[in-house]
Amino acid sequence: MSFDLLQAIVIPPNIFIVHRYFNLIYQFWLHANAVPYLGVVEYFFNTPSSHRVHHGRNPYCIDRNYGGTLIIWDSITLA
After folding, report:
1. Alpha-carbon dihedral of residues 38, 40, 45, 46, nearest 10 degrees?
2. pLDDT tens, 41-72?
3. How far apart (Å, rounded) are the C-alpha atoms in residues 16 and 4?
4. By 3-state DSSP, what share of the chain in percent is helix, strand and coil, each rounded to 5?
5. Alpha-carbon distance 49 to 62, whole Å?
6. Where in the numbering of this chain does the Fatty acid hydroxylase domain appear (predicted)?
7. What are residue 46's phi and psi, to 5 degrees?
8. How far apart are the C-alpha atoms of 29 and 35, rounded to whole Å?
9. Is 79 a residue whose pLDDT tops 60?
10. What is the DSSP string of the chain?
11. Are 23 and 31 in contact (CB under 8 A)?
12. How far apart are the C-alpha atoms of 10 and 71, rounded to whole Å?
């Protein structure tokens, strides 16, 4: 929550509000179970199928969701 306050102070209000709404939509999309595998997009962006691994039962992958948008951070930590 304090990070949001810092962003709200530094970023112009109209940009901050638009970003917050896009982020909300993106987070809703990430948790959707109706989105199929997205092919090459999976190598660059965090997608619903890659995010489901984070919520899975494999102890190796639980709580390994480090990147909010780009999957590179998860790939580096799992290597």
Report:
1. 40
2. 888 888 887 777 777 677 776 666 666 677 77
3. 9
4. 60, 5, 40
5. 14
6. 6-76
7. -70, 120
8. 8
9. no
10. -HHHHHHHHHS-HHHHHHHHHHHHHHHHHHT-SS----GGGGGTB--HHHHHHHTSS-TTTTT----SSBTHHHHHHH-
11. no
12. 26
Backbone phi, psi, residue 23, to 5°? -65, -40
Three-point CA angle 35, 36, 39, nearest 5°: 125
Give the Cα separation of 9 and 49 in Å (integer): 35
As a whole number of angstroms, the distance between CA 79 and CA 74 comes to 9
| Burial category of 40 from C-beta neighbours within 10 Å (exposed 0-12, middle 13-18, buried 19 and up) | exposed
Indicate the pTM of the whole model.
Answer: 0.61
Nearest to 75 by CA among 9, 11, 66, 35: 66
- Token pair belonging to 38: 């997205």
In the chain, where are the structural domains located?
Answer: 1-30, 36-79
